[in-house]
């Protein structure tokens, strides 16, 4: 199986960004001091400059509305689709009768 990714809280990310922006340390020095990869520092600084603190929030696993999740990798089977639509129609008919 794949390796689990480590997640960092907003406080840690903010401290890292502050080291870069306020203390004037370079990406490599900040990464070394915080014990993380340089690319993370670059990404967090870029997100912070674009969106502020909201840019440092964890975004993985949060769909942003209907149809915004992971797309289907294969089309729905026609028989399954037909059954689903028939059930949906029956439900709508019952709601209209109320």
Automatic annotation (TrEMBL):
Source superkingdom: Bacteria
InterPro entries per the UniProt record, alphabetical: Homeodomain-like_sf (IPR009057), Transposase_8 (IPR002514)
Ranges in a coiled coil: none
Entry-linked Pfam families: HTH_Tnp_1
Region Disordered, residue ranges: 59-78
Entry protein name: Helix-turn-helix domain-containing protein
Lineage summary: Bacteria, Bacillati, Bacillota, Bacilli, Bacillales
